[in-house]
Design goal:
It comes from Sphingobacterium haloxyli. The chain has 790 residues and is an alpha/beta fold. The protein folds into 3 domains: 363 residues, Glycoside hydrolase, family 3, N-terminal domain (TIM Barrel); 218 residues, Rossmann fold (3-Layer(aba) Sandwich); 120 residues, Immunoglobulin-like (Sandwich). Helices cover 26% and strands 21% of the residues. The strands form 8 sheets. The protein has an 8-stranded parallel beta sheet with strand order 14-11-10-9-8-7-4-15. The protein has a 6-stranded mixed beta sheet with strand order 16-21-20-19-17-18, with helices on both faces. A hairpin with a 5-residue loop joins β27 and β28. α6 runs parallel beside α7, α6 runs antiparallel to α15 and α11 packs across α12.
Length: 790
C-alpha cells in the first residue's frame, strides 16, 4: 500500500493518520547548532532580547496553604519581557526575606521549579524552558542542602580530587530541585585580606586557584553536557575583582597587562578549557574599562584566544553600573550597547538590557547580529543541558539526592582536610578523650550561622554540628564539658569574661573558639546587588565582620575577643585556640602566648565534628594555608609570590608574614630527600621531570602536602621571587616513604615578554620543594638551552 505524505497546516499526515509536526528546534536528533538557528529564526526581536534577561527568581513562586504555584510576577515578566533565565529562585536568606517558614524545603523547591517550567512550556508561544541559575559556591544556597566549607577552606585541603567530589555533590543536589547552572567557582586572587569576600576565594596563588577551579568545573559539569545530576558552572568574577584598592569591595583595581596575563587570567583559562559553560563579569574596571563592557576581555581573550563557547553573564546590575558607578555610558541605552557589543550576553537583573537593548536595536545603534550571537550562545547551553527534552525534575527523587548521609560524610571529610594546624607547642594536641573537665569558650563555639559563611541559606538547627557539640560527642561519657560564650564577635554590651575564667579554672583544658562571622541577619540592610550596607557607627551591632560588603580597615579580632583570650591564658591552664573566620585575622598575640592554634575557616555544617576529630586525634591534620597571614595591615600586600626584589624589613617589624602561604603542621613529622631533576629538550617543547622522596619519621600515620616552587633566575622581564608550580597531598604511614613526581613543560614556565609575546626563555631555573613556601627543604637547578615560543 502506497503511503501518502501531506503537509496540512501545522500537522503532518502520514498514511492517513495525523500527528503534530515536530519543529526542527524540538528535534533532539538534529545537531544543536541547527536547532539553535531554527529557533532563532522563529523568534521576534522582543523574544530574542527577552531571552537575555535573567530576573530574580525568588519572586517567581507563591507558597501558602493551598500549595506552590507560579506568581503573577512571573506571568507578567514572561508576558512583557519574554525572559529566558532566572537567578536564585530557591535562595533563602535575610536579603531575599526567605526563611525556613516561607522559603522552600527541597521537595517544595522541586515543585516550584516544575511549576515554573510547566508554565514556560505550556503557556508561551515557543515553549522555551528557563535556565535556572543558583548560587552554589560551597553547597546549593537553599534550605535543606548540604553546607560545605567556604572556598578558602576548600583551598586549604590542597586536594583537587576531593573538591571535585564535593562539586559533584553540589551539582547533584542543585539538579535534583531544578537548578541547571551553579554560580561558582570564584576564581579571584585574594591578595588583600581586607577585602570582604576573601572567604569566597581559593587564595592568593594563581596555580592553586586554577587547580581548585578546574576541579569544581569538572565536578559540576561531568564529562558530557546534559548528564544526569550535572549542571553548568559560572566562573566568577572576570577579572581581578579580588584586589580592589584599599580592600573596598567592587572598587577600582591597579593591575597591569602583564600581571593580568600571568596571574589573574590563568585560573579562568584553566577553568574555561575544562569546559565551563558560563563566565560572569566583575564589577570593577581594568585600566579604565569596565569589565562588563570590555571587548578585549570578553571577545579577544575569552573567545578568540581561549575558544570559550559558553555565554557571558553580567554581575547583578553591572550593566547599569556603566551609567552609575563607572560613568562611562551616557544613558541606559548606551550602556546596553557597550555591553552587548563587547560580548556580554546575559543581563543579570533584567533592567540592563530589556527595553534599553530593544531601543538600541530599533534605533540602529546595535546590529541585530550582535543580539543573535548572544541568544545563540545561551540557547546552545539550554539545548546541551537537555532542557527542551527534560524541563522537569522527578519530585520523588529529591529525598534520595539532597542532604543524604553520604553527602554529609563528604562535608565532614572536606572540613577535616581543610583544618590547618598553626601551632602545637609541647605537643599539647591531640587532647585526651578522658579528661575530667573541658571548658569550651567563645562566640564561635556554639553559633551555627557563624560557622557557615556567606551565601548560606537558613538551615535547621539540629543539622549543624558546632564545636561544642563536636567536643561533647568526642570525649568519654565521664568527661564534663562546660560552655561559656564569654563575648560576641563585635558587640561588647554583654561580655562576661568572669564566667569564662571561672569555667576554665575548673577545667583541665580550655578550647577557645574565636574569629569572625559572615552570618547575615534581618537587621542589616542590603544594597540592590545583595552586598550589605555597612555603617561604622550602626546602632545595632551584629557579629558580621566578613562577607560581601564587610570590608575591614584592620584585621584585629573585634569586640572583646582578645581580652577574653588573654584572661583565659592568664589562668595558666592549657589553652587551644580554634579560629573560625572568613579572612586571615591578626593572631600575633595568640601566636606568642597560646600553645596550640588550629584554623578551620568557615567549616560548614560538619565543622564542629571535624574540629573535634582533630582536637582529639581521630584525624591528623594536613591542611595548608592558601593565603599568607599578615602581622599587620601595614605589610599588605604580603602574598608570597611578590615580584622581585625581595621585600626588606620595616622599622617596626620584619617583612615576613606571621604564617606563610602553604604553611601547616601535622601530629607527625616528615623528612624530604633524594631530589632528582631531569631535563629533556625537544624542538617545540621540553619535559622537566622532578622526583623526590618524603618519609614519615614521626609516630603517627599522616598526610603530607609536598609543594614545588620554581625561581626563574634571570629573565627578560621581572618575575616572582618564587612561584608554586605543583603540589600533591599524599597519605604516608609512619616509617614509610612515598615518592612525589612532577613534570613541567614550557607552558609552566612561560612569561609575557617585553615584546608582548608569550615565551619560555632559556637560562637557569631553581627547583625548590618542601612543606610550605617559606620552608623549602631541597633545591636543585636545571638549565634550558634555548627559547620556546607559543
Amino acid at each position: 500500500m502506497k503511503l501518502k505524505y501531506i503537509i496540512l497546516g501545522g500537522l503532518l499526515c502520514v498514511g492517513g493518520g495525523l500527528q503534530a509536526q515536530v519543529l526542527p528546534y524540538k528535534n533532539s536528533q538534529l545537531p544543536i547548532e541547527d536547532r539553535v538557528q531554527d529557533l532563532i529564526g522563529r523568534m521576534t526581536l522582543e523574544e530574542k532580547v527577552g531571552q537575555l534577561s535573567k530576573l530574580l527568581g525568588w519572586e517567581m513562586y507563591e507558597k501558602d496553604e493551598a500549595g506552590i504555584r507560579v506568581s503573577d510576577k512571573l506571568k507578567d515578566a514572561v508576558k512583557k519581557q519574554h525572559i529566558g533565565l532566572l537567578w536564585a529562585t530557591l535562595r533563602a536568606d535575610p536579603w531575599t526575606q526567605k526563611t525556613l517558614e516561607n522559603g522552600l524545603n527541597p521537595e517544595e523547591a522541586a515543585k516550584a521549579t516544575n511549576a515554573i517550567q510547566r508554565y514556560m512550556v505550556d503557556s508561551t508561544r515557543l515553549g522555551i524552558p528557563l535556565l535556572l541559575s543558583e548560587e552554589a559556591p560551597h553547597g546549593h544556597m537553599a534550605i535543606g542542602a548540604t553546607v560545605f566549607p567556604t572556598a578558602i577552606g576548600q583551598a586549604s585541603t590542597w586536594n583537587p580530587r576531593l573538591i571535585e567530589r564535593m562539586a559533584s555533590v553540589i551539582a547533584r543536589e542543585t539538579y535534583a530541585v531544578g537548578g541547571k547552572n551553579g554560580y561558582g567557582p570564584v576564581l579571584d586572587l585574594a591578595q588583600d585580606p581586607r577585602w570582604s569576600r576573601t572567604e569566597e576565594s581559593y587564595g592568593e596563588d594563581p596555580y592553586l586557584v586554577g587547580q581548585m577551579g578546574k576541579a569544581m568545573v569538572k565536578g559540576f559539569q561531568g564529562e558530557i553536557a546534559g548528564d544526569e545530576d550535572k549542571i553548568i558552572a559560572t566562573l566568577k568574577h572576570f577579572v581581578a575583582y579580588g584586589v580592589p584598592e584599599g580592600g573596598h569591595n567592587g572598587g577600582s583595581v591597579s593591575v597591569g597587562e602583564r600581571a593580568l596575563l600571568q596571574s589573574f587570567l590563568p585560573p579562568f583559562e584553566q577553568a574555561v578549557k575544562a569546559g565551563a559553560g558560563s563566565v560572569m563579569t566583575a564589577y570593577n574596571s581594568i585600566d579604565g574599562v569596565p569589565c562588563s563592557s570590555n571587548p578585549w576581555l570578553l571577545d579577544e581573550i575569552l573567545r578568540k584566544q581561549w575558544g570559550f563557547k559558553g555565554f557571558v553573564v553580567s554581575d547583578l546590575l553591572s550593566i547599569s553600573g556603566l551609567t552609575g558607578s563607572h560613568a562611562t555610558a551616557g544613558d541606559a541605552v548606551d550602556a546596553a550597547k557597550q555591553s552587548i557589543e563587547a560580548g556580554l550576553d546575559v543581563d543579570l537583573s533584567g533592567s540592563g538590557f530589556g527595553m534599553n537593548l530593544l531601543e538600541a536595536v530599533k534605533s540602529g545603534q546595535v546590529d541585530i547580529q550582535d543580539v543573535d550571537k548572544a541568544v545563540s550562545r545561551l540557547l546552545y547551553q539550554k539545548f546541551a543541558l537537555g532542557l527542551f527534552e527534560k524541563p522537569y525534575v522527578d519530585e520523588n527523587l529529591v529525598k534520595q539526592k539532597v542532604g543524604t548521609s553520604e553527602h554529609i560524610a563528604i562535608a565532614r571529610e572536606v572540613a577535616r582536610e581543610a583544618i590547618v594546624l598553626l601551632k602545637n607547642e609541647s605537643n599539647l594536641l591531640p587532647l585526651s578523650k578522658s579528661l575530667d573537665r573541658v571548658a569550651v569558650i567563645g562566640p564561635n563555639a556554639d553559633n551555627i550561622y557563624n560557622q557557615l559563611g556567606d551565601y548560606t541559606a537558613p538551615q535547621a538547627t539540629e543539622k549543624i554540628k558546632t564545636v561544642l557539640e563536636g567536643v561533647r560527642a568526642a570525649v568519654s561519657k565521664n568527661t564534663y564539658v562546660d560552655y561559656v560564650k564569654g563575648c560576641a564577635i563585635r558587640d561588647t554590651s554583654a561580655t562576661d569574661i568572669a564566667s569564662a575564667v571561672k569555667a576554665v579554672n575548673s577545667a583541665d583544658v580550655a578550647v577557645v573558639v574565636l574569629g569572625g562571622s559572615s552570618a547575615r541577619d534581618f537587621k542589616t540592610s542590603y544594597q540592590a546587588t545583595g552586598a550589605a550596607h555597612v555603617e561604622s557607627a550602626a546602632p545595632s551591632v551584629s557579629d558580621m565582620e566578613s562577607g560581601e560588603g564587610f570590608d575591614r580597615a584592620t584585621l584585629d579580632l573585634l569586640g572583646d575577643q582578645l581580652p577574653l583570650l588573654q584572661a583565659i591564658v592568664v589562668t595558666g591552664k592549657p589553652v587551644v585556640l580554634v579560629t573560625i573566620m572568613g579572612r586571615p585575622l591578626n593572631l600575633n598575640w595568640a601566636a606568642e602566648h597560646v600553645p596550640a592554634i588550629i584554623n578551620a575557616w568557615y567549616p560548614g555544617q560538619e565543622g564542629g565534628m571535624a574540629i573535634a576529630d582533630v582536637l582529639f586525634g581521630d584525624y591528623n591534620p594536613a591542611g595548608r594555608l592558601p593565603v599568607s597571614v599578615a602581622r599587620s595591615v601595614g605589610q599588605l600586600p604580603v602574598y608570597y609570590n611578590q615580584l622581585k626584589p625581595k621585600h626588606h624589613d620595616y622599622v617596626e617589624i620584619d617583612a615576613k608574614p606571621l604564617y606563610a602561604f602553604g604553611y601547616g603542621l601535622s601530629y607527625t613529622e616528615f623528612a624530604y630527600d633524594n631530589l632528582q631533576v631531569e631535563i629533556k629538550e625537544g624542538d617545540d617543547d621540553f619535559t622537566c621531570s622532578i622526583r623526590f622522596d618524603v618519609k614519615n619519621v614521626g609516630d603517627r600515620d599522616g598526610e603530607e602536602v609536598a609543594q614545588l616552587y620554581i625561581v626563574d633566575e634571570v629573565s627578560s622581564v621581572v618575575t616572582p621571587v618564587k612561584q608554586l608550580k605543583g603540589f600533591s597531598r599524599q597519605s604516608i604511614k609512619r616509617g614509610e616513604t612515598q615518592p612525589f613526581i612532577f613534570e613541567l613543560t614550557k607552558a609552566d614556565l612561560k612569561l609575557w615578554g617585553a615584546d608582548r609575546k608569550w615565551k619560555t626563555e632559556k637560562g637557569r631555573f631553581k627547583v625548590l620543594v618542601g612543606p610550605s613556601s617559606d620552608n623549602t627543604l631541597l633545591m636543585e637547578r636545571f638549565e634550558l638551552e634555548k627559547d620556546y615560543k607559543f
